Amino acid sequence: MQSVRSNVNNLEVTMSIQYEKLQTPEGYVTTTPQPTPEQLSRFYAETYYQAPQSSTYQVSYDELELNYKKMKCDATMQALSGYCPEEGSSFLDIGAGEGFLLNAAHQRGFDVTGLDFSAYGVAKFFPELSSRHVAGDVFASLREFVAQGRKYDVCTSTNVLEHVIDPDMFLGLVKKVMGPNAVFALTVPNDFSDIQRLAVEEGMIDREFWFVPPHHLQYFNTDNLVPYLVKNGFEVVDAFSDFPVDLYLLHSESNYIMKPASGRDANRARMHHDLMIVRKYGLDRYLDYYRAMFKVGIGRDINVIVRLAGD
Predict the structure, then answer these.
(1) Name one GO molecular function term (predicted).
(2) What is the spatial distance between Cα 135 and Cα 133, in angstroms, rounded to a whole number?
(3) Which of 23, 143, 149, 242 has the fewest C-beta atoms under 10 angstroms from its C-beta?
């Protein structure tokens, strides 16, 4: 159990709820008790969506970081490219954040719409897309889109599912805005993974650092995400992971949890590694590389592309 304390812009926010892990029948780990929607909205408002100094949004990135962000978005778009024509297809990015994926889709000719609780990230990095971005309660926006009968050819959500109180509800809303033959690409952290469990069992780390409610409320991995999506009426058409930065936990000198000063170098090594592969071999081989890693449970984030079962 833990009490979560966050310091944002010199404002200390304490959630006094005592959280525990709960294994769901579907195999993923959830948080109990769940915060109320009001508590979570207040936490998000005070933690994630402050400008300019925030754990979510940064003032600027250096060239390596920008190249890496662009490459990751290009990889997602490459994985999606076989499922719909780009020019003129509608694209909904749920949790658009700073707008990098929204921009990647826009550059490829998609008719893009972004949703997020804050307009700050898109306005900072891609102000030309501000008119295509809807700020406010994401779930309220989705319900409004459903009521209006809006449909999209491609939906995406990057690091959203782990934050929601009711993931079934969220996926249900996404299904209702997916058009005929639409695809949905989602990304979540690979938590309670084999590497993380090994690091705990072998005493290489002193805590399950990834269990951080109310920041994250749901915890998926390569073992349970696909069955969970199938249970919710989806058919998986592609799955790939990304760089397994948690491998650094297995070496005492690079263990960024026990030696936090090594975290920056671990992150930059990840970026150099991936950009090197793409420069020499291209995005298709990059994706094949991480498809193989997904199959053996390795990768810090996991990416799955689905369509509605029966389409």
Answers:
(1) methyltransferase activity
(2) 6
(3) 149
Q: What's the pLDDT tens digit per position in 199-210?
A: 999 999 999 999
Token representation of residue 58: 């940064």
Q: Is 288 exposed, middle or buried (0-12, 13-18, 19+ CB in 10 A)?
A: exposed
Total residue count of the chain as it appears in this document: 311
Would you say residue 118 lies in a domain? yes
CA atoms within 13 A on the CB side of 289: 16
Residue 19 forms part of a structural domain: no
* pTM for the whole structure: 0.91
Per-residue model confidence as pLDDT tens digits over 200-239: 999 999 999 999 999 999 999 999 999 999 999 999 999 9
Residue 72: CATH number of its domain? 3.40.50.150
- The span from the CA of 24 to the CA of 30, in Å, is 7
**Measured at the alpha carbon of residue 100, what is the angle toward residues 94 and 105, in degrees to the nearest 5?**
75
Sign (positive or negative) of CA dihedral 138, 142, 147, 152: positive
From 58-72, 190-204, 283-297, the region with the lowest mean pLDDT = 58-72
> What's the structural domain count of the chain?
1
* Burial (0-12, 13-18, 19+ Cβ within 10 Å), 275: middle
User: Please, what is the angle between helix 100-107 and helix 63-80, to 10°?
Assistant: 60
